Amino acid sequence: MTTTIAVSARQVDISFGSEEAKVIALNHTDFSAHTGELIMLVGPSGCGKTTLLSVIAGTLTPQSGEIEVFGQRLDGLSQEELTTFRRKNLGFVFQSFNLIPTLSVVENVMIPLLIQGASHAVAKKKATEILEKVGLKGREEGKPNALSGGQQQRVAIARALVHEPPLLICDEPTSALDKDTGAQIMEMIRALSRAPNRCVVVVTHDFRIFKYADRIAEMEDGKIKRVVDDPRTLDPTYL
Amino acid sequence: MLRLALNMLFGDTAKLAMLLCGLAFSALLMAQQTSVFFGIMSWTYTPVVNIRAHVWVSDPMVEQANDAKPMRDTELGRVRSVDGVAWAAPLHTSFLQARMVDGNFKLITMVGIDADTFAGAPAQLSQGQIDDLRLPNTVIVDEWGAQLMGRQVKGPDGKITTVALKPGDVFEINDIEARIVGICKVRRAFTGGPFVYTTYDRAKSYTLGARRTLSFMLVEPVAGVTPTELCQRIENETGLKAWTTDTVIWDWTDRSLARATFWWFWKNTGIPFSFGTAVALGLFVGIAISGQTFYSFVLENLKYFAAIKAMGASMRVLSAMLFVQATTAGLIGFGLGAGMAQAIGRVMIEKGMPPFVMFPQVLIATLILTMGISFVSAIIGIVKVSRVDAATVFRG
Asked: B17 with B9: CB under 8 angstroms?
């Protein structure tokens, strides 16, 4: 399978706060991810994983450096252009699921399609189909709170993929799940990453799921310290 | 997305109930207080409603219907001579004290009408007949007055009840007998005293022969002459003031006595201020409760709005969602509040107190204000959502 660069960050800088209390979150950071790949960002708290994820997702604009996602330069885009970019190209899986409790399962999954302007009927049909694929057939009309943590994360994955985005961003997807459920979810995410034009970026602290990664980027002090194929070569203090 | 926005709103029953309570209470307060205000204000021009005629003529200094400045009887002849007058009848109105058989005194509004034509007589009698007013010392009392001026009777159980006046009962006005020959149905007046009808000449004797007793003249135009035209002619030829009697207080164009009376009370009493305060209170309470509730609704959903924002929803879509939620809550709140105001109004109308007049304009104004409250709430929410950073979705 041929792969291409899906995500490329070059010399990205981001800092927060004023002069005295300045916190450097990303420091000349370079990062890349490829299509058909599941890459994990790991490292201690405060190392800049979430900031880098936010920059890749177009929810945070770097102060300097270049960000390119599927050939589209994000640095320099207006907020409106970034919003449009996210709508078309990104799917999100959040740590705390972020499922709207007052909406039904299928309505939650419909959201990305409705944002894109799909009709209610079309969105519902597609959402129902993908819920069946993630093993939640028959649970469409229930409320998210009636589901287990693993099922809720499946709903979140269905929501992230229903509009078939090329880039899937996962923020601590297993942190709220037990070991077995986390493994099931990661199996699912890894399978999804095998699509030829898709790339999956996962931020995690959960060393139990490192084995699902094709590559692991280890971060420290706002930089990519190294990128490894085998989790066993990681610094054990991070694990 | 708008359908989902509504589902988000209706999905949180407790929050929705609180939001609707705030809006409904506000709408109720505004609609009910305004309707009671207009009810009370409509009582100010009750004489124009009860004493029916197309044109009223008064002393030029008269400003409103309760403000009689007596004229000489000879003015009647001058008015009758104006081209376009079909007939003109005298009318006396005054506030007098009536002495009841038990020695108690009651304030009454005496109305003296022309004995020949009975022009200005009450439209409906529940007891007796109008012709009996031609008998000596006779009067017709309105239903509320019959109850108010009734006799207090102690029953065998010691309980005191009021026995309403009826035809045949008598009382005195300035030591002159007044025998009731009828009970009429008329609207109550702002000035408080019940209406006691008698003939114009007998009213003179009840007022102990005052030199001037002609309070107003009731005039009918000939066919083809409008009341407004006739008013102009009467004023031009006699120098008196002539009024039409339509009661559409929203119409600013002509010379309605009812309208002049309404606005006189508006300008010269504290009633509008007092009710205006209650209405403003309703508005502020509505804004406070609804704004706060809607704001807390937005706050509770902020992380979801942030997630939707991160997924690529524009502020236009998010604003539309919040507006749909606020507008829907506003419409339901208005419906509930206006419905409750109507229900309370029905009870008030049945009991007769306090007066209640709900003009369509009141409902429209209440709807506009309630929607205004909702829009303010929506704008507060939109500002909050616009400031939320989509990146917050990655911070747990």
From this structure: no
Among the partner residues B1, B7, B311, nearest to A92 by beta-carbon distance: B311
What pLDDT score was predicted for residue B34? Answer: 83
Indicate the DSSP class of residue B131: G
Say if the ipTM goes beyond 0.95.
no
d(CA A62, CA A57): 12
Convert the pLDDT of each residue in B183-220 to its tens digit.
999 988 887 789 999 999 999 888 876 778 899 999 99
Q: Which pLDDT score is estimated for B253?
A: 59
Two structure tokens written together for B15 = 């929050």
Q: By the 8 A CB rule, do B275 and B37 touch?
A: yes
Residues pairing with A13 in the sheet: A64
Q: Is residue A138 predicted with pLDDT exceeding 80?
A: yes
Contact A107 B303 (CB under 8 A): no
Please state, in angstroms and rounded to a whole number, the distance separating the CA atoms of residues B320 and A212.
41
Measured CA to CA, the distance from residue B198 to residue B218 in angstroms comes to: 16
The type of residue at A49 is K
Tens-place pLDDT, residues B11-28: 888 888 888 888 888 888
- Please choose, from the candidates B379, B245, B260, B393, the residue with its C-alpha nearest in 3D space to the C-alpha of residue B315: B379
Tokens of A55: 């920059």
> If we measure between CA atoms, which residue out of B216, B234, B194 comes closest to residue B81?
B234
| Predicted model pTM | 0.75
For chain A, percent of residues with pLDDT exceeding 70? 97
- Averaged confidence pLDDT in chain A: 87
For A99, the token pair is 């499922």
Contact assignment for A57 to B394 by CB distance below 8 Å: yes
**Distance, CA of A92 to CA of B313 (rounded, Å):** 13
Q: How far is A111 from chain B (nearest CA, A)?
A: 7
Domains and CATH numbers, chain A: 5-97+166-238 (3.40.50.300)
Length of chain A: 239
Tell me, yes or no, if B317 comes closer than 8 A to chain A by beta carbon.
yes
Nearest CA in chain A to B321: A115
